[in-house]
Amino acid sequence: MASPLLLDGKGTAAQIREELKAANSQRRAAGQRPPLLAAVLVGNDGGSESYVAHKIKACVEVGFESRLLRFASNISQNELLSVVNGLNHDDQVDGFIVQLPLPPHIDAQVINLAIDPTKDVDGFHPVNVGRMALGLPTFLPATPSGICELLRRNGIVTSGMHAVILGRSAIVGAPLAQLLARPQEPGNCTVTLCHSRTQALKEHCLRADLLVAAMGKPGFVTADMVKPGAVVVDVGTTRVEDRHRQSGFVLRGDVAFDEVAPLCRAITPVPGGVGPMTIASLLTNTWQAATAS
Ligand code: GUN
Fold it and tell me: Among 56, 97, 215, 284, which residue has the most ligand 1 atoms within 8 Å of its CB, making it the best to mutate?
């Protein structure tokens, strides 16, 4: 088989940032302020720190304003609700996110429900989840919409494909299943959503034209699970200890890349695949929030 197309999320995200930067320059030339994204970070989880830092850096790159609101992990749920309420009513803030996971004493759904849906650039509020389900204009969750955009911009036509998604999380797997089933391109897929109770998982995977791995199990998808010519998207970014690195860890995807890639028509690398696209989609949503009506 010919060598696979590498779905370069890093390069594709850079292209999207260039487009947003140009649109933002025009907006500013017309006398309007840049979009502002606020990020709420609770505690010191290493992964969350890193994700939020990347989100803020991306804002700087496209000329958006950003605000980072940090709180100790012992902030109470009521205090965090007050923070959300403040952001809801702050006219300078176009959109904001509350980085997940939250400490166990805080109910993430209570916080999610308190976010003004018109500022919910994560697309997690039930109003926006419902709008997505109905195909109405809304903020699409960043990782699934980033995957769709990566496929679209790299010429992968999904219509008629059998898409198999591993992982049913509310952030990735469940919304991606909906987006890929939509009657449009990318979309028009027949979707199988697999999870921890799925039987005969390998057989499902072997029927996939588009296989998306989003379970957070490093190296789970091996060559014997992939149909030759499939398109493989790896959402996994697990930190695995690596004493040879200065950071002490390496990011590992859910796909055993070296053995799977030679079988594929196209595949995403980790890092540099889905991760940068997630952040580009968040910027797109922030732009949408700032320019709506
Ligand atoms: N934690 C992991 N992914 C995400 C995301 O897309 N948004 C938020 N708010 N938290 C996350």
Answer: 97
Q: In the Cβ-directed half-sphere of 261, how many Cα atoms lie within 13 Å?
A: 13
What is the distance between the alpha carbons of residues 276 and 204, in angstroms, rounded to a whole number?
A: 28
Helical (H) or strand (E) element with 258: helix 257-260
Residue 55 has pLDDT above 70, yes or no: yes
CA-nearest residue for atom 8, ligand 1, is 99
What are the chain's domains? Answer: 30-117 (3.40.50.10860), 142-275 (3.40.50.720)
Angle at 249 between CA 245 and CA 251, to 5 degrees: 115
122 is catalytic: yes
Answer yes or no: 55 catalytic: yes
pLDDT tens string 59-71: 999 999 999 999 9
